[in-house]
Design goal:
Layout: E1 3-6, E2 41-48, E3 56-64, E4 67-72, E5 82-85, E6 90-93, E7 95-100, H1 138-145, E8 148-153, E9 161-169, H2 176-179, E10 187-191, H3 194-200, H4 211-226, H5 238-247, E11 252-257, H6 260-271, E12 279-282, H7 290-296, E13 299-302, H8 320-326, E14 331-333, H9 344-357, H10 364-367, H11 373-378, E15 396-399, E16 410-415, E17 418-422
Parallel strand pairs: 1-5, 2-5, 2-6, 7-8, 10-11, 11-12, 12-13, 13-14
Antiparallel strand pairs: 2-3, 3-4, 6-15, 8-9, 9-10, 15-16, 16-17
Helix pairs in contact: 4-5, 8-9
């Protein structure tokens, strides 16, 4: 026999989905631990955007434990399952922000919290964003309320090589390690153009002051790393070891870059070492070289309408994402902000609208991938999350209405089968001390 819940006003007992027998304790906060084996949950009758194919009307999503077990219409109800009536609701995969500085530049933005740039040398491949990350950043909770389930936290862009990024699930945790996304690949943040020039150009004689200096330094350090072997040295050089991982293709390159010519130049340099960057981030002028990026198999993480704050950002167009998507570039939208991350669904709607106004061949089912499946690929976790398919982790969002509407809200957010946010029950998600006096709750 199944148990049936009506999703109106909202899900009152979702934790029953993963607890064997009995009703949940409504005062207990969601657990960050892996879900226990137990009754399944069937979300019945929603509009489902799978990000793996066309939108399904009056469809079901079956979650068993931490995984999605089925997606379709008229799914059978497993014995003992909780059935959630999701009519008039929309379900999407959990949203992914592929470029975040939450936790390393937390709110409130004060000097004491500024831990994103190790601006002591232009090459710092050994530093790790995870070791600056503050898990009590109030912005994290607000991101979850916006439907975000996974973030990629990067060092800043002060350096030619700024350090290693980390992919995190937005589950409660007291350390980055407790929130780490399983076996997600390590990434390496690189930057080109104005930022490293501005930070180091007048400070250090040994640091680059021009774009050609940045490229020369990058090429030489990669060449040195190619021949690095910890077995031959008395002590491990963690910087060279990390760069060796880049050269060997084990660490994914995430390259901050704006101008088309600089992105092409970076592709040339990387090709000298038989490596390919996973993605260019910000990529304001990526639309100018979209065929080159598609041929190289390089992704792009872009804004919708940020532009003009410096010279290399002047030639932006709001159709950038749609233009890239049209030729097969894996394009993802990113926030780079503790505020825009709260409305990534609306960012996708804006980017889609810009493409449609320009007559480009894009549609809603492709646009939802810009904040789900494509960022998952950029991070190397596409086999785990980003789409609603059997076998994927049960990372999903139940929306009050069409997620591309400004009136839609994330009602419930689920990560690996566990409820981590429920708009109808704020008492389960009390603000931290650091929220007090900062702003209005989402």
């Amino acid at each position: 026999m199944s148990r049936r819940l009506r999703l109106a006003p909202l899900l009152c007992a979702l934790t029953a989905c993963v607890l064997p027998g009995g009703a949940p304790d409504p005062s207990a906060p969601p657990s960050a631990a892996a879900p226990a084996e137990g009754p399944a949950t069937l979300y019945r009758g929603a509009t489902v955007m799978t990000a793996a194919g066309p939108t399904l009307e009056s469809a079901d999503v079956l979650v068993v434990g931490s995984e999605i077990a089925g997606v379709g219409t008229g799914l059978d109800v497993p014995e003992g399952a909780v059935v959630v009536d999701a009519r008039d609701r929309w379900i999407t995969p959990g949203l992914i922000d592929v470029h975040s500085h939450m936790g390393v530049y937390p709110v409130p933005s004060v000097r004491a919290h500024a831990d994103g740039n190790e601006a002591t040398a232009p090459f710092r491949p050994e530093v790790r964003a995870a070791e600056s990350f503050w898990p009590q950043d109030p912005a994290l909770r607000r991101a979850v309320a916006g439907g975000i389930t996974t973030i990629h936290v990067l060092p800043g862009s002060a350096n030619v090589v700024g350090g290693q990024g980390v992919t995190l699930r937005l589950v409660p945790g007291l350390s980055a390690e407790a929130m780490r996304f399983g076996d997600a690949p390590v990434t390496m943040k690189m930057a080109c153009g104005e930022n490293p020039k501005r930070v180091y150009g007048t400070r250090r004689k040994s640091a680059p002051s021009t774009r050609m200096g940045e490229v020369a330094m990058l090429r030489q350090r990669l060449e040195n790393a190619r021949y690095y072997s910890p077995d031959k040295d008395k002590a491990v050089d963690y910087g060279k070891q990390a760069l060796r991982g880049v050269v060997d293709g084990e660490i994914l390159i995430q390259n901050h870059c704006y101008r088309a010519d600089e992105m092409l130049l970076r592709l040339e340099v990387f090709s000298e070492f038989d490596i390919t960057p996973r993605a260019f981030h910000h990529a304001i002028e990526a639309y100018k070289i979209r065929d080159d990026l598609a041929e190289a198999g390089v992704g792009a993480a872009v804004w919708v309408d940020w532009w003009g704050s410096k010279m290399e950002m002047l030639d932006a167009v709001p159709e950038n994402a749609a233009l890239l998507d049209e030729v097969g570039v894996r394009v993802a939208l990113h926030s780079d902000s503790p505020y825009d991350v709260q409305r990534m669904n609306q960012q996708a709607a804006k980017a889609l609208a810009a493409g449609l106004r320009a007559g480009l061949r894009v549609d809603r089912d492709r646009a939802i991938r810009w904040v789900t499946a494509n960022p998952a690929w950029l991070l190397g976790i596409q086999d785990r999350t980003g789409t609603l398919e059997p076998g994927r982790d049960a990372d999903l969002v139940i929306w009050s209405a069409d997620p591309f509407s400004v009136y839609s809200r994330a009602d419930v957010v689920v990560i690996r089968g566990q409820r981590v946010y429920d708009r109808a029950h704020p008492e389960l998600f009390p603000p931290s001390d650091f929220d007090l006096g900062i702003g209005v709750e989402p």
